[in-house]
Design brief:
Helix content of chain C: 25-40%
Distance between the termini of chain A: 32 Å
Strand content of chain C: 15-25%
Largest interface: A-B, 25 and 39 residues
Radius of gyration of chain C: 19 Å
Oligomer: heterotrimer
Shape of chain C: elongated
Structural class of chain C: alpha/beta
Structural class of chain A: mainly alpha
Radius of gyration of chain A: 22 Å
Largest sheet of chain A: none
Number of strands of chain A: 0
Chains: A mainly alpha (272), B alpha+beta (355), C alpha/beta (268)
Shape of chain A: globular
Number of strands of chain C: 10
Helix content of chain A: over 70%
Chain lengths: 272, 355, 268
């Protein structure tokens, strides 16, 4: 009776498929509806207008920068949360994850009171000649603020499930902690780090509320693609829809590429 | 360069001291949870005891006594650890896994790979150099892990049940490899296999409940076990009591007559043990006629196949006895657990010696 | 035009559903204690749904309250949003009786789509004013001051009405501004000024009034180059055109003008 070992018992009740289909449709259908509304003859001119190209370019640049910042700051954060032992660790985790549930506009207000001209750090920065408000730096900060939790969560999970057995072995072989981190820990959790980075990039790309509140909106400087869509919507719905489609396409490409690559690579396996 | 350690860790009721001469390999035997892995963890620097100290020659590993609070991190100790699982770094091939230690010590990639090549050959794994860990069998991976540990040039090699996770076909090859590479090397092997102790160790230590209960040259401990665990490993029945003229008397009053070593004159009242193989025990139903010596009423607790014999276990765990009889005899007698029978031990096969 | 609105509606629908239901609950409903002194022959009754530009929120909330007080048995349901969003919603069949726009452009869209009952009436005007933080850190006193180097000015983007007005003023006065940000709403401009991020912002005089002490308004003569006119009209699909017309009349009445001018609006 065993035809194929691959088609083994899955244990999924049929009705689960039905509910899953509804869930899938809830996500896919609006995207289909949007694609249906695209003014195709005008599509290329709409997305290649100066303001659109400037917004897309700015979005890609700032998202890349904030992803790098997420990695630089988020990897140590995930490490101390997953492996460290210190008082207030749980509290720190709760706070780090806060931007996940916070409305982005709240994040924008918080950032404003931190890095703004009258803000907590902004005043000192202003004296030092550094102005963050209304600059591309502000966009990157806002994006990093909302995107970093994705990297931290994803990496912390990977670190926890990997355990620290390999690190212990590496240490007894004479590797200093920094060497262990570089040559053992990071390569081991690379898939988790990569998917965290991709999620961060995607989240940065879609960042709107915090940027609008904190960074402002000026073509080529702070007006990212989501802000451009929001503005175009006021006068030119066709342009807004076309740009929305571009944003969706970029996000799908980034997420799809990374997940596709991960599935095809050999999984990390612990052999006895 | 001798290794010396004494350490205690109250949370695990661990209290042990240990020393190794240069080039000596010690096997640590003991039941699960006895503190064997704790011992290795403390030595490697992965577990911090409450108090104690350890040194290899002049180099202190840790010293938590006398107000000093010195704790050397694992990477500075020179104590490579080989665990049950090979734990080869999955992203590196076999060669780079072995080269990891030399690289960490500061060698260039090329030099480290040369060293790695040498150690891979040493464990008969030179042909596996380019393979990823996922492409290695359990035995192959464990041999590569041995090479990796050796390539780090540890002053003390720690092996935590290196054969335990291997199938019975892979274990002999690794055991031969280990015998070769451990020759003249300071090493501690945690094992529950008496064969490992015989083949690899100069000396064995038996630990139970976080304490060392027995220690000595491998052959002595296994032939003259004084602990139940060692006796179990050696496949012997062990009874403790006080020495009498021709044997020992157990606390519950049973008398085991036996032979004692020539040249040893027992002094009555001294603590002693009697050891005898299960094959020297016969099983009878009802009263026994003839020699009444070494004949004890017991209740059968277990029957299990043991080689081509049936092993009959009886008595509570503290003074448990085993008898090996033929399946035919077992069937004839109609033995079942819970049955009251009589064990008769041939006194000529009972060894009596001081505890 | 119709297709354009349909496309636009897609984006706005989710927002619209949430907004209208939320705002419906905010509509004032207290019936007046005193009977109507109105001379109209048939007493008005029922509910009138008014879609009004966001900048009219304070005044129309007051006007609706007054209307209900004068006409017991009536109820005014208000929905505020950007004028273009409201046009989208009405085109999509949202049940509006009255539409009050912040500009003539959006009203024209509805008229072109034959969605108006009769013609629109202009009932108010609005002009730009400079909004500065109360301390006026950059010592702004005229439109020209905004063009000085180092002054951080925030304006509306050209795509939104206040931004279009800004462009007009710039062109007419010959003063070119280099804003540090071009926001998509008046709220965002004011937010940057009240938080002290910006030295000045260009918004409508009514917005400055509405913000209270948080900002200081500085009027400038060039503002009359861009006078924004607010039209109001009955929507053709209205089920209660009599009540709708009465509400429109109350807005354009003397009492209505008083409420509007108190809020800073000018006469049409």
């Amino acid at each position: 009776m065993n035809r194929k070992s691959a088609s083994g018992y899955h244990g999924i009740p049929r009705w689960v498929y039905a509910v899953a289909a509804v869930g899938g449709l809830l996500v896919v259908l609006p995207l289909v509806a949007m694609v249906a509304k695209v003014n195709w003859p005008q599509f290329l001119p709409l997305i290649t207008s100066d303001s659109s190209v400037a917004a897309l370019g700015l979005s890609l640049r700032t998202s890349a920068a904030s992803t790098v910042l997420c990695i630089v700051l988020g990897v140590p954060l995930a490490l101390v949360l997953a492996r460290g032992e210190f008082p207030g660790q749980r509290l720190l985790r709760a706070f780090v994850l806060l931007p996940l549930v916070l409305p982005p506009v709240v994040g924008g207000i918080a950032l404003l009171y931190t890095f703004g001209r009258q803000g907590l750090l902004g005043k000192s920065l202003e004296l030092a000649g550094i102005q963050i408000a209304f600059s591309t730096t502000a966009v990157v900060l806002a994006q990093t603020f909302v995107a970093m939790p994705f990297l931290v969560v994803s990496l912390e999970g990977a670190l926890r499930s990997a355990g620290s057995k390999y690190e212990a072995v590496a240490a007894t072989l004479g590797a200093r902690p920094t060497t262990v981190l570089r040559r053992v820990t990071l390569p081991l959790v690379l898939p988790g780090l990569a998917s965290g980075a991709v999620l961060s990039f995607a989240r940065s790309l879609g960042e709107f509320g915090a940027t609008l509140t904190f960074a402002g909106s000026l073509e080529g400087i702070t007006r990212t693609l989501p802000l451009e869509i929001y503005l175009q919507r006021e006068t030119d719905a066709d342009a807004a829809v076309a740009l929305s489609l571009v944003l969706v396409a970029v996000a799908v490409a980034v997420v799809g590429l990374s997940y596709g690559r991960r599935r095809s690579s050999t999984p990390v396996e612990v052999r006895p | 360069m001798t290794f010396e350690l004494q350490a205690s860790l109250r949370a695990r009721s661990f209290e042990m001291s240990l020393s190794l001469e240069d080039g000596e390999t010690v096997a640590i035997l003991g039941p699960n949870g006895a503190g064997k892995s704790t011992l290795l963890g403390v030595i490697a620097g992965l577990l911090r005891p409450d108090s104690g100290s350890a040194r290899i020659g002049d180099k202190e590993l840790f010293n938590l006594d006398d107000g000093t609070n010195f704790w050397s991190p694992p990477h500075l100790r020179g104590t490579a650890l080989l665990a049950q699982e090979a734990l080869l770094f999955p992203h590196l091939n076999a060669l780079d896994n072995v080269a990891f230690g030399p690289r960490s010590a500061g060698a260039s990639t090329a030099t480290a790979r040369e060293t790695a090549q040498h150690w891979l050959a040493e464990v008969d794994a030179a042909n596996l150099a380019k393979r990823k860990p996922s492409q290695l069998s359990g035995g192959q991976a464990q041999r590569v892990a041995v090479a990796r540990a050796l390539a780090a040039e540890p002053e003390l090699l720690l092996l935590d049940e290196p054969m335990a996770a291997l199938d019975i076909h892979a274990a002999p090859l690794l055991r031969r490899v280990l015998k070769r590479v451990l020759e003249g090397r300071k090493a501690i092997v945690v094992t529950h296999d008496v064969l490992d102790a015989y083949m690899l160790a100069d000396r064995v230590m038996v630990v139970e409940k976080g304490r060392m209960v027995e220690e000595g040259p491998t052959r002595d401990v296994l032939e003259r076990p004084r602990s139940h665990f060692a006796a179990g490993l050696a496949g012997l029945n062990l009874v403790t009591g006080t020495i009498t003229g021709d044997g020992i008397t157990t606390p519950d009053g049973r008398v085991f007559a036996g032979q004692h070593d020539s040249g040893w004159s027992p002094s009555p009242g001294q603590a002693g043990v009697a050891a005898f193989p299960p094959s020297s025990v016969s099983v009878f139903l009802g009263d026994v006629h003839g020699s009444p010596r070494n004949s004890f009423p017991v209740t059968i607790t277990d029957l299990e196949p043991y080689g081509d014999q049936i092993r009959v276990r009886a008595g509570d765990s503290a003074q448990a006895l085993s008898a090996d009889i033929t399946p035919a005899a077992s069937a004839d007698l109609g033995l079942v657990p819970g049955m009251e029978v009589r064990f008769v031990v041939k006194s000529a096969l009972v060894s009596v010696y001081p505890a | 035009m119709r297709t354009l609105q349909l496309k636009k509606s897609f984006l706005a629908t989710a927002v619209a559903v949430g907004l209208t239901s939320a705002l419906a609950a905010c509509g004032t409903s207290a019936p007046a204690a005193t009977p109507s002194g109105d001379s109209s022959t048939s007493p008005l009754s029922g509910t009138v749904t008014v879609f009004a530009a966001a900048s009219l929120k304070a005044t129309f909330t007051q006007l609706a309250k007054d209307f209900e007080a004068k006409n017991p048995g009536t109820k005014v349901t208000l929905s505020f949003a950007g004028s273009s969003d409201l046009v989208t919603q009405i085109s999509q069949g949202a049940p509006a009786d009255v539409f009050a726009s912040a500009d003539t452009k959006n009203m024209t869209k509805l008229a072109d789509a034959k969605l108006l009952d009769g013609t629109a009436t202009n009932f108010a005007t609005n002009v730009l004013e400079i909004a500065v933080p109360p301390s006026n850190p950059a010592s702004i006193s005229s439109l020209a001051d905004l063009a000085k180097p180092g002054v951080k000015v925030v304006t509306c983007a050209s795509q939104v009405p206040c931004g279009a007005a800004t462009d007009t003023v710039e062109k007419a006065s010959g003063i070119t501004l280099s804003p540090v940000s071009e926001e998509s709403s008046v709220t965002d401009v004011l937010g940057k000024v009240t938080s002290g991020e910006a030295d000045a912002g260009l918004v409508y005089v009514t917005d400055v009034k509405g913000a209270g002490d948080k900002v200081k308004g500085i009027a400038f003569p060039e503002s009359d180059k861009a006078v924004n006119t607010y039209p109001i009209a009955t929507v053709s699909s209205s089920k209660n055109k009599e009540l709708a017309a009465a509400f429109v009349a109350s807005v354009t009445s003397e009492a209505g003008k008083k409420v509007l001018s108190d809020a800073g609006f000018g006469a049409p």
